[in-house]
Amino acid sequence: MSTARPTSPGPGDEREMSRVRILTAAAEIAAEHGYEGTTISKVTKRSGLPASSVYWFFRDKDHLLAEVVRHSFEQWIAAEPRWERDPRDGRSLAEGLRSILSRSTRGLPGAPDFLRIGHMLLLESREVEAEARQYFLATRDAVASSIAAWFTSHFGTGLRARRPELAMDLARIVIASTDGLFLAHQIDEAGDPDDFITIIVAIVEQAVADAG
């Protein structure tokens, strides 16, 4: 009986491992020193890889940090509950919203790199807008559109016609609220997330009731 041997990483696997090492090092340094304090020399020292390896994957620091945001966002979104409503799902808007937020808020204390770096760049005023900032804003727009579509799926035809902007307004409230919870976790313990979810669900329910 033959035993299968573990395969050694191929050239492509090794390249990807090097790329992830660089991204991880850059994310750690950006968290510690900010955008301006992140340099290629610090990244090479932290990752243990030469500058030539960094420039093989990334054209400059701006491109590198944009890829940190993208890589972190893709990992985060893959683990997040989808803002997609199954037509067979009989739960109310409040029940569905509570279910999604109960899962999505659990990952906030872990401080996903794209959130940390993205918020940092949003607060910086730069002559030339960083590529990472542009990508972060684009991801927020995409997430907001997904949440708005989810809210719209719960609205009747009349409400959609009377208040076409309501779904996006509620999506922005959800994003702004989770932004606040994320920042609270970075400052100190943010309390019981279930209390936070109860408040957000109540705000959304009242807004929909007032609009109806």
* Rg of Cα set: 21 Å
Shape: elongated
Count, helices: 10
Bin the strand percentage.
under 5%
Identify low-pLDDT runs.
Answer: 1-10
Instruction: Provide the residue-averaged pLDDT.
Output: 86
Order of helices and strands: HHHHHHHHHH
- The overall strand count is 0
Largest sheet: none
Specify the structural class: mainly alpha
Measured distance between first and last alpha carbons: 70 Å
Share of residues in helices: over 70%
What multimeric state do the chains show? single chain
Ordered list of secondary-structure elements with their pairings:
Layout: H1 11-37, H2 40-47, H3 51-57, H4 61-79, H5 93-104, H6 113-122, H7 131-154, H8 157-162, H9 166-187, H10 193-211
Helix pairs in contact: 1-2, 1-4, 1-6, 4-6, 4-7, 5-10, 6-7, 7-9, 9-10
Question: What report would you give on this structure?
Answer:
With 212 residues, the protein is an all-alpha fold. It has a domain at 81-211. Helix content is 73%, strand content 0%. The protein contains ten helices and no strands. Helix 1 (11-37) packs across helix 4, helix 1 packs parallel to helix 6 and helix 4 runs parallel beside helix 7 (131-154). The radius of gyration is 21 Å and the shape is elongated. Residues 39-58 bind DNA. Keywords: DNA-binding, Transcription, Transcription regulation. Pfam families: TetR_N (PF00440). This is HTH tetR-type domain-containing protein. Residues 16-76 form the HTH tetR-type domain.
